[in-house]
């Protein structure tokens, strides 16, 4: 469980933890939009610096954020292979017979890698500094204006919160199943492609069974406590934005405006 980062809440005492969950969600959306603005490497440097400052203010370790990105390494390597095969623009860096690696393929891959890393780091900071219940309340409040068009804001917020909460649970369950199968002689690293495929299938089936069992247990627990989604609900905890929340939102908006300006000047 200690190797799981994404979706895991860390109960630390920091100024980021004390922010209103709505502030963190809106700031995350603004930063996500800023990441996709084509402001060049200067823009990515600005966002990266902001993320590092945010990480330090939240009292999180860089190694903690790195653990959240490790599962993406295989996908990033696969993306590099696809870009090398598909993109044939720029200067030729490596040529072996009729096969050539172009500079634009590497640059495009690097752009995507940086964007994904920044997005994962921001999402990890959000989940690490916000309790699942607070996250649910924040999403529900932000979606509440859409109730006039019959959007089930509470149900959507509950589903998102449960999904984030069960990410580390399912990863832990996967590790437990892999260890149990390894003790029974199942080897997922050695053997032919067919044997590896069968080993993966033997992992997926019990994982799905376990996930459905967790969902059934959760549904029974919520039903036993009288949970009815569409009934009027009251709250013990009321969300209230303070001065630090408005400063945080203003900073995120300023970063977005700066990146728009950099993109316009290019």
Find the structural class using helix and strand composition.
Answer: mainly alpha
Question: How large is the share of residues in beta strands?
Answer: under 5%
Order of helices and strands: HHHHEEHHHHH
Please tally the β strands and state the result: 2
Average per-residue pLDDT, rounded, comes to 81
Q: Which residues form runs of ≥5 with pLDDT under 50?
A: none
Number of domains: 2
Sequence of strands across the biggest β-sheet: 1-2
Which of globular, elongated, flat, extended, rod-shaped describes the shape? flat
Gap between N and C termini, in Å? 45 Å
* Helicity level: 55-70%
| Radius of gyration using CA atoms only | 22 Å
Distinct helical segment count: 9
Largest sheet: 2 strands, antiparallel
Describe this structure as you would to a colleague.
By secondary structure, the protein is mainly α. It has two domains: 1-152 and 239-266, no CATH class; 161-229. The chain is 68% helix and 3% strand. Strands 1-2 form a two-stranded antiparallel ribbon. The radius of gyration is 22 Å and the shape is flat. The mean pLDDT is 81.
